Amino acid sequence: MSLITPVNVARALGLSRVAVGLAILAVPAKVGEPWLGADGTTPGAQVALRGLGIRDVLVGMAQAHTASDPERGYRWARTASLGDVVDLVATLAAAKHLPRSGVLSIGVVATGAAVSGVVVSRWMQAEA
To answer: By CB distance 3.0 to 4.6 Å, which of 44, 63, 72, 123 could disulfide with 6?
Structure first.
């Protein structure tokens, strides 16, 4: 029996999202500065980043918790992807005001996470 199953991949993606969210909650300026530039270290940006962090923690927990549920698991994988798409679109919309390395990093990470979530969601549906 393979360890690489849609349920295990969905659970791993959810737990990865929890880890990222916790890091953002713990040290928002460390995430904010590379992504947003000097503005990412301001108190206002840290409030918004913590909001993003808790979103990722909660969505990741729901994804990990429901991964084995054929009725809800694929939906949470897809829902998580929508958050990544929003992060990507928002970053691209402000790209001319952000550090190029931050735009590229978020572009790669958010695109990879969104695609992974959609792929695992479809895989979960196919296996159900």
So the answer is: 123
